[in-house]
Amino acid sequence: MSREGSPAELRRAPSPPPAEKIGSVPHWYSHPYNRPELYRLAEVMAWLPRTMRLGLARQLGRLAARLMPQEREAVRTTMTAVTGAVGARLDELTGRVFRDFAMCFSDLVSTNREGPARYLRRIARVTGAGPLRDLDGGVISLTAHMGNWELAGRLLAGHSAKETHVVVTVDEAAKLTRWVRRNGDGVRFVPRARQTSSLGLLAALRRGEAVAVQADRALGNRGDVMVSFFGRPAPFPIGPFVLARASGVPLVPAFCLLDADYGYEVEVAPLMRVARSEEEAALRTWVGLLESMVRRRPTQWFNFFDIWNPFGA
Amino acid sequence: MDDRAVLEQLKPILMDRLKFDPARAAQVTLDTYLPKEIEGSLGLDSLDFIELAMGIEEQFGFAMDEREELDKHFESFDTLVRYITSRMTQG
Hints:
Chain A is of the alpha/beta class. In chain A, 42% of the residues lie in helices and 16% in strands.
């Protein structure tokens, strides 16, 4: 595999090289949105009627775009690569990323917490979910930081009476757990705190449970593989594909995107199965699918850093 | 099969599936810790643990018990060897 560094080089040393030690991996996801005050504000806004709440969220998103020059520049770079837009069109698309994010973020800490009976009302359309009905046993839900990704995971959990394990990064801001990582409704959050957590996921899949992962952000370790994304190599995690091969369960790529009327449309792509030695090929298929989704809905892909060079190397 | 014999059978898994340098694999003892978050350990990451689990099932002919918390068995070669031995005895 074309991972960072060759495995043999990594393993001649008696202990892992310093760059691999926990705590030294860059935490690019700690953008200024990850602050308890903003989550509290979003929670307070949950009391507003949704139309009013989303309107206010758009205003806050507009403000955020002005107050976060570094993130705005990163989004601008992404929009240039993804859409080829320039000038006023590029400014508009860049601003819309912040507005769309603010709306989805607002729903994440309110609508998503309302319980299935209420959040299902926000789903305007579901396409491609037919094969899910015939699934019996474990499954890996594959999504990205697009639209209301967490709702896609909750919907999948609703498909099964068994638990869904949502894999999340070890967040520096543990205070945010209350808002974004609240277990319940068959969903359990699994931080990648220990390397052995993969064994728990493997066991869960063998028990017929589901695992949900977002596979659009590199982790900064040897599990990242460079794949062409909009014509340039970018690192993506191969872990979900290794887990799928080892457990023998299918991957279900799914996206939950905001439509023009502020309902959500869920798109489920064809199931993927991974044979031994085909992990990288499966990853490339996934990245191709992600690329096509991002091309269609560029302003709903929420990565506020340089996706092609996330660790500034 | 005694502990040392089980340990010797784990070394080819380290080399073949986890791509360890043979010299490094030869150095491991029952006292060697596995996860990379432990200082001085073999430095295994989450992908390695999946490969190691699969390799053990193939090599020793049993399936991991998915109802059990497996982390504690994969802390060191000592805990791992004892787990393998107990599973083989059960089998």
